[in-house]
Each structure stands twice: as C-alpha cells, then as structure tokens.
Q: What sequence folds into this?
C-alpha cells in the first residue's frame, strides 16, 4: 500500500531536531505534518512491503521501504502492532517485525523533514476457524442504561477485527481494532436483555454468539438530595442531606456546592447530612453503592436542590436586571458600561438562575440609586463583559417592579435605520445602516444607548438576521461592548451598546449594520406584486457617562419587497417532545425524546462552532442520552436534536 504526498516549496524547517530524549515528540510533529499536508521538498512516493505477508502469531517478517522522487539521505521510522512505539530509527531499511498486525512507516530526510508515509497489513497464518467465547457477564442496573459488563475471548482470526453487538448496547458504531491473538477485551454499559455478538475479521470470516445480560440481583439503587430549610437569611444555616435508596452500603456521594466546590464523602448510613450557611443550587453530582465492588454498577445523578436567600422585598438581585427595573432586556447593558471594571463584595450565591438573590450592598451606586450589586449580574465581585451572560440567559424575564426612561423631542438627534436597497426580492440580503445623529444635529456626550429595531417578520427569514456593531465613531472593540437579542416572533431586534472607559464621544454617522435575508414564503398573491416592509426605531434610551438620560428620537425607513405567491411555512412542534436537563447545566447534560428514536444530537456555540455531534443508527431507538459538557466554558449554547419526527432546537446555559 502506498501514500503519495504532493508537496510545495513553501517555508522549510531550518533548525535540526536531534534525537533522544525528544524523539517521540519529533515523530508526533512529523506525523501531524503529513496529516495536515505541511510537507516540503517536491513529490515523493513511499511504498512499504512485507517479504512474508502472512506469518504465525509469533513469526517474523521483513518490511522493505521503497522511496522514489528524492536522492536525499533518508531516515525511517516504523510503528505498529508489535513495535511498542518507535521501532527503527536512522537509515535502517529493511526492518524486521514480529507478529501479524498493521505497520506504519514514516520517511524523513536527515533534518527530520517529513517526506511521506505508508502502511501495510501483515496477516495471521492461523487457520480460518475463529472462535469467541464469553468469559464473564456481569449483572446490569435496572432501566435502559445499565452497568452490565461483557468480557470476551477470541482467537483464530485475521486482524484487524470488527466487533459489533445487536442491539448496539453502549455503542453507536461497533468497536474496531488491530489485535494480536489471542485477545481478551471488556465491553461495558449494557442494560438487561439479550445481545447478539458478531466478530468479523479482515478477510470476511465471522462468528456470532448470544449474550444474555441478566438484571441485577442487588436492590435498585438511587439517591436524592434535600435542603431544610430551603430559605435562609443572613447568619442562618441550612441542612443539606443526601438520601440513599437500595443498593449495598457503604455509599459514596459527591455534592457540588455553590461556587463549584466538589465535596465527597463515604458513609454506611442511608442518609448523610451536614450544615452550611451557603445558599444557591446544590447538586448531588454522583452516588455509588460501593458494596457492589470497585467498579460502579451505576452512576446515579440525584438531581438538584435550591436554597434561597431571604433578601428583603425589593432588595433582591435578579441576575441580568442590571438597571433594577423588573425586566431583563437590552437596557441592562448600559449600567454595566457605567460601572465597568468596578469591584465589590462577592455575592454568597454566584449562580445566575432566575430568582431573587441576597447580595450585600456595594459602596457605589449610580445617580438614580441603582446599587452596583445589581450591576454585578453574575455576583463574582467584578463588573465586566462576563455579566452580559446573565442578560442573555434571562432575557425578557420579569418580576414585580416598575421602571422607565425618557425620550427626546423633534429637534433632538435621531437614531434611524437607513435601508440601502429600495427594492429586494426573495433570498436577497437587505442591509440596514444604523445612523446616530447627523451633520446638522450631532449626538453629543454619548456614553451608551439602547433601542429596538422593529422589522416585519412576514418578509424576513428570522433565522438569518445578523447585527454587527464594529468600529465606529462611537468606539472600537477596545472601549465598547454590545449585545443584540432577536425576538423573532414579534419582529424586534433589541440592541444596546456602551462605552466602557468612562469617557463620552460626540459625532454622527453609522454605529452598526444589520442584515436581513428576505423571504416571500409567507406572502400570498395571485399575480406579481410588491409588499412594503417597514423598519423603525423605538424604545430608545441614550445616556452620558454619569448616567444622565440624553434626548434622542427614533427614525423610520422602508423597502419594497417583490414577490410571487408562495406557501405558508408550517410550524414544527417536535420541540415539545425533546427535553434537556438540567438547564442551566454544569458538567453533565441529559437529552431525552418522547418518541421512537433520536437520529443525531449536535451542540454548537453561539457563533456556530460544532462542539459535540452524536449520530445514532435507526435501529438503536435511542430515546435518552447523557453527554459530558465538563470542558465547556460557561455561556450559552444551542442543542439541535434530529428525530424521526423532525428537528428540535433548544438553548443550553452552562453555568459554574
């Protein structure tokens, strides 16, 4: 087998990399270079062949490399089944290997510049009478997700092997590997029931065997967590208790307390309690019945419990409501800009879940008596861009409280949408400039502003709206932050931007651009005609660096949308069948589906980067899946679940 690498004369590695002790790292870098295509020095072809392509399990064969396209002195690096990492270094060619398997060759010049690689399979001479046996099968937990374990012993095959189970058990795709025979392997995660094992070797030889996974003879095991009382005041305590049900003692439990502190205990009692003054969300992150052995039979998640602070009425912090007016929206960005980089006491409960949090008063307040404790939305004692996460998570949520702001008159500066195209058609991109002030009436002493751009969702593809607040006369990424929340069903793009260096700006012109993709799917008509789409600014507030409200008016503009009769888009109700929990989540996420089966789960960040993708066979009927999100940074993500009934999309918040 050969791999031909096409190389271009780009940059050449100048420094020579010497051997031991860094040789393994060098090889890793060179292999990465080959995979990435970053290989220099012309076209080189590398072949590898074995003098005996079929040998006994303990036999030897000679691997010979043939390199064309270069006259340089070469070095050869062999890896594979029986090489235990690096096999031969320097100018050794050919090389002797022991045992059947898959072997790789990397060829470099004397400066360790990778020239190419090749791979070859050496087969076993064992007669085609492969056999597999079940050495052991452990019991399984009750329910569809179990701790059942199968230990297999198989021999007499031509490697590599493909091992599958039907139904798939814990595997979306059967495990594969290049094994030296005889082999023992362990597969875990089976629920109770019957499974068909199939082992197929590289030459198509296969055997099947039946595995009966019994239910556990140990009592079903679970746990849950409680708090008493669930509301405490300053200086008061609550008792956190983990309750164990069934299983075999002793037990082990791990509890995540507010502030992401993981506490672990072992106990032989069916309950474990301790006293704490902390309020917030407590999580029983895992519970094990250690009496069943060193390996956990199940990993049981006991859920969450909320301990509330008894803050005085009207003085609670609701994460995201930075301007303390009873609703979370774009106006809450403005206080963050005014108090940016301020520090104060950390809130006892630093979660951003939507409930009233107790928080000590800060020494500073805005001129309208808004204490900085409300502006510190995540409660970590620092006011900065991280506090916008709470705004986006809790956007549009309300609690009982009133508030408001003023507006400008007819002679004041205006924020207006400037629609670039007079006429657009289906699938066109419509661009709108957001212009603040004019040459005749500039906007003076501006520190921040919040507003709503209203659009007509009838002719806008609401999945493709993009708002960009780049560098402008009002500020750059170094001294300005912004948010935009698209309320698609009602056609409102609620925006806010604020400076963060405590100095104002005066001027006029564009402060941002919004692009809409036009759709005529929701328009009805018999003949070709036009539809007038309006775009206008409302709900405006502009402030200076002291928080004073500045006068500002809102403008209006429109465009003509040309259309032909189209069908009306139907609403997909599959979202009602898909559930993700807990949400907010910390390290583990459960996705469940009330239907026949999920086909794929994808998790992306807010800019579309795919972080997790799981695909399931149609025969698996997967209706529940646990995902590890412990490596995710705190923030907002999108979960897309493709099912037999359609696609569901939900917002996931990761908070720690």
A:
């Amino acid at each position: 087998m050969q791999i031909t690498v096409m190389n271009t004369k780009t940059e050449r590695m100048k420094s020579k990399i010497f051997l031991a002790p860094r040789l393994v790292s060098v090889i890793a870098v060179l292999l990465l270079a080959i995979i990435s295509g970053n290989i220099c020095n012309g076209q080189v072809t590398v072949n590898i062949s074995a003098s005996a392509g079929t040998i006994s399990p303990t036999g030897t064969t000679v691997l010979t490399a043939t390199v064309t396209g270069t006259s340089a002195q070469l070095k050869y690096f062999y890896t594979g089944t029986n090489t235990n990492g690096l096999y031969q270094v320097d100018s050794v060619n050919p090389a002797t290997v022991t045992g059947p398997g898959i072997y790789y060759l990397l060829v470099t010049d004397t400066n360790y510049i990778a020239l190419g690689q090749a791979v070859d399979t050496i087969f076993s001479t064992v007669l085609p009478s492969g056999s597999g046996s079940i050495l052991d099968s452990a019991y399984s937990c009750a329910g569809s997700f179990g701790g059942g374990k199968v230990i297999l012993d198989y021999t007499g095959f031509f490697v590599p092997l493909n091992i599958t189970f039907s139904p798939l058990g814990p595997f979306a795709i059967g495990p594969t590997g290049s094994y030296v025979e005889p082999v023992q392997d362990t597969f875990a995660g089976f629920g109770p029931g019957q499974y068909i094992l199939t082992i197929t070797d590289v030459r198509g030889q296969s055997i099947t065997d039946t595995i009966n996974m019994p239910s556990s003879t140990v009592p079903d095991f679970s746990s849950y967590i409680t708090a008493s009382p669930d509301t405490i005041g300053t200086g008061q305590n609550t008792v956190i208790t983990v309750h164990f049900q069934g299983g075999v003692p002793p037990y082990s439990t791990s509890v995540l307390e507010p502030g992401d502190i993981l506490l672990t205990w072992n106990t032989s009692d069916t309950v474990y309690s301790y006293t704490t003054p902390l309020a917030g969300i407590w999580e029983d992150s895992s519970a094990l019945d250690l009496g069943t052995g060193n390996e956990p039979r199940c990993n049981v998640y006991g859920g969450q419990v909320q301990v509330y602070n008894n803050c005085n009425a009207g003085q609670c912090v609701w994460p995201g409501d930075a301007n303390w007016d009873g609703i979370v929206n774009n106006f809450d960005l403005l206080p963050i800009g005014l108090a940016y980089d301020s520090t104060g006491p950390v809130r006892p409960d630093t979660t951003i879940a939507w409930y009233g949090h107790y928080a000590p008063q800060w020494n500073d307040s805005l001129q309208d008596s808004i204490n900085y404790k409300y502006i510190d939305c995540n409660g970590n004692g620092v006011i900065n861009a991280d506090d916008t996460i709470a705004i986006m998570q809790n956007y549009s949520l309300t609690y009982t409280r009133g508030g408001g702001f003023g507006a400008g008159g007819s002679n004041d500066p205006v924020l207006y949408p400037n629609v670039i195209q007079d006429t657009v058609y289906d699938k066109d991109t419509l661009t709108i400039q957001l212009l603040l002030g004019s040459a005749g009436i500039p906007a003076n002493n501006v520190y921040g502003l919040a507003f709503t751009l209203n659009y007509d969702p009838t002719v806008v593809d609401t999945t493709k709206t993009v708002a960009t607040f780049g560098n402008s006369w009002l500020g750059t990424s170094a001294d300005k932050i912004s948010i935009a929340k698209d309320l698609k069903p009602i056609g409102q793009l609620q925006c806010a931007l604020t400076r963060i260096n405590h100095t104002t700006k005066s001027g006029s012109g564009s402060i941002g651009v919004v692009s809409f993709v036009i759709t005529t799917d929701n328009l009805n008509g018999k003949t070709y005609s036009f539809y007038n789409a309006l775009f206008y600014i409302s709900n405006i507030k502009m402030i200076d660096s002291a928080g004073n409200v500045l006068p500002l008016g809102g403008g209006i503009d429109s465009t003509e949308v040309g259309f032909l009769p189209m069908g009306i888009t139907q609403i997909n109700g599959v979202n009602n069948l898909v559930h993700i929990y807990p949400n907010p989540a910390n390290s583990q996420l459960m996705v469940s589906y009330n239907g026949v089966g999920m086909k794929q789960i994808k998790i992306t960040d807010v800019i579309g980067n795919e972080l997790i993708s799981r695909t399931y066979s149609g025969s698996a009927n997967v209706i529940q899946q646990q995902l590890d999100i412990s490596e995710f940074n705190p923030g907002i993500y999108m979960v897309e679940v493709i099912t037999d009934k359609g696609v569901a999309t939900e917002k996931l918040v990761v908070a720690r």
